[in-house]
Design goal:
Elements: H1 7-13, H2 20-34, H3 49-58, E1 63-66, H4 73-79, E2 87-91, H5 106-115, E3 121-125, E4 130-134, H6 141-144, E5 146-148, H7 150-156, E6 166-168, H8 170-173, E7 177-182, H9 189-200, E8 203-206, E9 209-212, E10 217-223, H10 236-240, E11 244-247, H11 254-264, H12 280-295, H13 308-328, H14 337-342, H15 345-348, H16 355-360, H17 362-381, H18 388-395, E12 400-401, H19 408-415, H20 421-425, H21 436-452, E13 456-458, E14 463-466, H22 469-472, H23 478-485
Parallel strand pairs: 1-10, 1-11, 4-7, 7-10
Antiparallel strand pairs: 2-3, 5-6, 8-9, 12-14, 13-14
Helix pairs in contact: 11-12, 11-13, 12-13, 12-17, 17-21, 19-21
């Protein structure tokens, strides 16, 4: 269908303009009645954040999302555009999406006066009606609201006080759309004053000249909780004008977190798609690391541990397994616990440490988190299973080295020398005995679980050995001594 190209054609079509908040509300109601999925790809918020968002949109409120990093705030904000109409008409050439029936800019009014029903119409799609800005301390009023443009004045022969000399900022350019600001507290106080002023009265002053701009904008903000950000705060008058304050959160349960990581992580590598097996317990250990980190007193709670941590860790785990397969000539990628240790560089940059943590070091804390996570998942799989023959074998002075570069067949040969290890490791899993990669991954998982219970020891090279009696009496020091020395106990 051909869209109207002039104001006269638009009038004949029967088009009626509504405010952007009414538009969002109407389209949301349609989706709710049709049973459509709201905010696809947003996992874990169906009972918490999404109902609150729906209520805010139905109430035509401006919104702020409060939460720590890696809680999908920006993704939610960007998906709000799906509630906009496919396209809307504007006066052609307008910088601020002037409504053809009620223009607010001097340019729009002049066009209407000059051409009346022949005024050219352009159509703007929904993505072009979303404007996003990351707040930083150097953002100015000119960036957000606008400034006088001397070049426009010179070229058009206008006085500087003429509205036609204005170069509009981001907020006016978002007219009839959604304007989003990320990390709102970082915005200088005077800029926040300009925001709430235009939200409430629609009045702004540019270089001392009063300009009436009754903008039609849905305002959406994101921020970390104010008690975390020492760089600034949201001023009270602005908070008072934000209709809904919605708190986001990290996944509450392991299956939800795994679902997010499955969705976001890049695991389908070229040439390996049909030959990659990621054991579920490896996914669970990787995810549990983030849960352990969020509970660790040495990691800053106010900063948080982003959901990006398990996403990047599982990608690095697979990469290390891929590297091993390329070096050994194996035809299949099967990640193991040793690959999680190799992924430590993907963890350390995502943890902001408290003073105590800084004294210990991010590398050492990451290793402890892997140990604790593996122990937690191990307990869920092997509760009540007796591993005493395996532990006794190590207590007799035997040692087992499972390097992360050793092939599955090489590791399997070594594992078969350990009494009952292979048999007991298979109890919870439905692995075929011919699947050497999966068998080795399961056995290494068992060894890591026994290490987490301090029944055996581990060194940085992936070597497992007995725990000496002296260190059995000092359970908390076993791991520290091994990682510092790099030697067996």
């Amino acid at each position: 269908m051909q869209l109207p190209a002039t104001l006269g054609e638009l009038r004949k079509s029967g088009y009626q303009n509504v405010s952007v908040k009414d538009e969002l509300r109407a389209n949301l109601i349609k989706k709710l009645r049709a049973g459509e999925t709201l905010f696809p790809g947003i996992v874990g918020y169906s009972e918490t954040v999404i109902p609150q968002l729906v209520n805010a949109i139905l109430a035509r409120h401006n919104i702020i999302l409060l939460g720590l990093r890696g809680q999908a705030k920006s993704r939610i904000i960007r998906q709000l555009t799906e509630l906009l109409d496919d396209r809307i008409p504007i006066i052609a050439g307008s910088e601020i999406n002037d409504d053809p029936f009620q223009p607010i800019s001097a340019y729009g009014r002049h066009q209407l006066e000059a051409h009346n029903d022949s005024t050219p119409i352009a159509w703007v799609d929904r993505d072009s009606r979303f404007v996003e800005k990351l707040a930083t301390p150097d953002v100015t009023i000119a960036d957000i609201i606008g400034d006088v443009d001397p070049i426009k004045a010179a070229k058009g022969g206008h006085l500087l006080s003429d509205e036609l000399t204005i170069h509009y900022g981001l907020l006016p350019r978002a007219n009839r759309g959604i304007f989003a600001i990320n990390e709102l507290p970082d915005l200088a106080g005077k800029i926040q004053v300009g925001l709430f002023n235009i939200m409430q009265e629609g009045d702004v002053q540019i270089k001392g000249y009063p300009v009436r701009l009754p903008l039609d904008v849905m305002l959406v903000f994101s921020a970390n909780p104010e008690d975390y950000t020492a760089r600034g705060k949201i001023i009270t008058p602005l908070k008072d004008r934000i209709g809904a304050e919605i708190s986001t959160h990290y996944p509450a349960e392991l299956p939800t977190a795994i679902q997010i990581t499955r969705q976001e992580a890049w695991v389908e590598r070229d040439g390996w798609k049909e030959n990659m097996v990621i054991p579920e317990f490896i996914r669970e250990v990787v995810e549990q690391i983030a849960f352990e980190a969020r509970d660790d007193q040495r990691i800053d709670k106010h900063s948080g541990v982003s959901q990006r941590l398990p996403i990047t860790v599982i990608e690095s785990v697979i990469s290390n397994a891929e590297r091993r397969a390329l070096l050994t000539g194996e035809k299949e990628i099967v990640p193991r616990v040793s690959d999680i240790y190799a992924a430590i560089p993907s963890m350390t940059g995502k943890m902001e440490l408290e003073y105590e943590g800084e004294q210990i070091g991010a590398q050492r804390i990451a290793k402890e988190l892997i140990k604790r996570a593996a122990g937690e998942i191990f307990n869920g799989y092997f509760v009540g299973i007796d591993f005493s023959p395996t532990v006794q074998w190590f207590d007799q002075g035997n040692k087992l080295l499972l390097a992360d570069t050793a092939s599955a067949e090489e590791c399997r040969t070594l594992i078969e020398a350990v009494p009952d290890l292979l048999e007991t490791a298979l109890i919870p899993f439905d692995f075929n005995r011919s699947e050497s990669g999966s068998l080795v991954a399961a056995c290494e998982f068992v060894l890591e679980g026994l290490y987490a219970q301090n029944k055996i020891s581990r060194n940085d090279e992936g070597g497992y050995a007995a725990v000496t009696k002296a260190k059995k009496d000092r359970r908390g020091m076993i791991y520290d001594d091994l990682t510092e020395s790099g030697k067996y106990s």
